Amino acid sequence: MNKAHIIARRELASYFYSPIAYVVMTLFLVVTGILFARDFEPGQAAGMRSLFEWMLFLLVPAVPILSMGLMAQEWATGTIESLMTAPVEESDVVLGKFLGSFGFMVVLLCPTLLYVVVLRLYSRPSFDYGPIFSGYLGIVLAGAMFTAVGLFCSSLTRSQVVAAVASAAILFVVTLVPMLATQKATLPPMLRSIADFLVYRRYTDFARGVIDSGHVIFFVAATAVFLFLSVKALESRRWK
Fold this sequence. Notes:
Layout: H1 2-15, H2 19-39, H3 49-67, H4 69-77, H5 79-85, H6 90-109, H7 113-122, H8 129-154, H9 160-182, H10 189-197, H11 199-207, H12 213-238
């Protein structure tokens, strides 16, 4: 765990020297700021439910861009050799990379806490903090899963572009497609059940202020599965 912690600190620090990370952060905060200002109008209910839903959609392209180089860049530059010849296990590398990238995603979300302060200062009557807490819990859980997906795709290729496109495609299928599907009144019951099982339907409960243990387990389990697959992908490529 100490080895993973060292890798995580190195990975997190590298984001603060990456122009791409700053571009992603700037665009994310600008868009969320515009969306918050749009909803922050007199007579509107004080809350962030709509903003939380938009945050999920924004993370679909943002996380793949942030995570595309986690392993792909190591393979492309050859630095993976020095990393893997060090006394570390594949699980240490994967966990360290995941924690570093996930840590930056949390940093990305931190400035949005300013919106909570604004609501607290200007909303009349004061709003309920419960949905705010559950919304942030949901976005952190979803972000962890998205990061694990990005790491897995990055572990399969030397190309950062391929890794970003592949992870974005997976996240699009499990997040946006179910959202669009549930809007169709003629959707067959079986397909509707599948759509309800995936990310969007589970995440919207958090945005509404509902913390369901089943949803928490889903995101934690999905994150663990993709981290496990990343370890196996790294093991298979190590011996090629």
